Amino acid sequence: MAIEMNAAGGAPTKVKSRATGFIRIGVSIAILLFIFSFAPVGELLARMKLVSPLLWLGVFGGFILGHAMSAAKWRWMIGGAVSYPRALKAHFAGLAANLAMPGVAGGDIVRAGLVMKGSQKKTALAIGSFADRLIDTASLIVISAIGAFWLGARAGVHPTGLALIAAATIGAGVAGVFLLKPIARMMRKLAPAGKFGAILNDVADAAEEMSTRRGALIGCAAISIIVQFGFSILNALIAQNIGAGTSIAAWVFAWPLAKLVATLPISFGGLGVREASIAGLMSPLGYQTTGVVAASLVWQTIQFATGGLGALAHLISPAHNRAPVESSNG
Predict the structure, then answer these.
(1) What's the confidence (pLDDT) of residue 226?
(2) What is the pLDDT of residues 4-29, one digit of tens each?
(3) Would you list the domain boundaries of the chain?
(4) Residues 6 or more apart in contact with residue 207 via CB below 8 angstroms
(5) By the 8 A CB rule, do 271 and 249 touch?
(6) How far, in Å, CA of 100 to CA of 93, rounded?
(7) What is the pLDDT of residues 29-47, one digit of tens each?
């Protein structure tokens, strides 16, 4: 009976998932058509063709290296509960999922799910993965603030405002680290009896354990800033290579903000949303839309190639390697 119920319940879920996927593709197409109305397809393709194959391969390699570092960061964040090769495979499988389901709605869940199966620390893995996402989000805000200061008045926003947001983000993160233990104690006191109370106690245990790993939190934040800053520089190199005439500072300011917008689960892998955001942030700086959108689309090809590589690696890996095996120290 349980199997029949699961099977019956699975059909509507699959239909809903497909419908959501089609809606996201539709949103991406609609936004791209809007962009094409003032940045003709022919001009965009001509600009994209200017990219040097060697530069594309170099950026592709840099992107893979950055995500290899991100996989190590995530493994560190979840306490080394899995080996690095397994964490790396799960991370790149998450990138593949991001092609259709950006941000928390897709890749993060897939990545965590692949290492949770058979693990005795599911709650700790979930909390660590959530903290990893928060760190990445905060890092993007900090990097954009750096770019705003670099640009000065040209950024179109008051650098002090972004600096205050970045400072508040960092302050909240630091306060959160020091408040984890008191919060864990409060959760235990408020935990009711029964299954929900047991889950709440597990979350409290995971939070308290994380409060003792402040070095890991600081180290992961540093890695996140280095990786995301590097990605913004790679975007700037692409733009310069195709003659967009943009500055590095402009990309350090605009790219992190566009990435934050693109993680909203409303499009196909952020396609269209990222380009519209980049154009909206770059145009007030005096840069032509065609050049910056073309550079962003080249970056999209690198993201799609990496996601495809992650999917291929997951498919060809032996079945016994897909089920995570927990280790004490990794």
Answers:
(1) 96
(2) 444 444 555 566 667 777 788 888 88
(3) 39-112+120-321
(4) 127, 180, 181, 183, 184, 187
(5) no
(6) 12
(7) 899 899 898 889 999 999 9
Q: What is the pLDDT of residue 110?
A: 83
Instruction: Specify the pLDDT at position 49.
Output: 96
In which residue are the tokens 């996402």 written? 133
Q: Of 254, 224, 228, give the one whose Cα is nearest residue 144.
A: 254
How many residues appear in the chain?
Answer: 330
Tokens of 215: 């070095």
The Cα diameter of the chain in Å comes to 66
Answer with the residue of higher pLDDT: 274 or 199: 274
Give Cβ neighbours of residue 142 (< 8 Å, ≥ 6 apart).
166, 169, 170, 225
pTM for this prediction = 0.80
CA 3 to chain centre: 35
Q: Is 4 helix (H, G, I), strand (E, B) or coil?
A: helix
Which residues are within 8 A (CB) of 238 and not within 5 positions of it... i.e. 6 or more apart? Answer: 51, 55, 59, 295, 298, 299
Whether 140 and 256 have beta carbons less than 8 Å apart is answered as yes
pLDDT band at 305 (very low <50, low <70, confident <90, very high): very high
Residues 6+ positions from 106 with CB-CB distance below 8 Å = 94, 97, 98, 100, 265
Alpha helices in the chain (DSSP H): 2-36, 41-48, 53-77, 84-98, 107-116, 122-151, 159-190, 195-211, 214-241, 248-262, 273-282, 289-316, 319-322
Nearest residue to 126 via CA among 182, 206, 217: 206
Radius of gyration of the chain (CA): 21
Cβ pair 190, 200 in contact under 8 A:
yes
Residue that the structure tokens 């290899």 belong to: 68
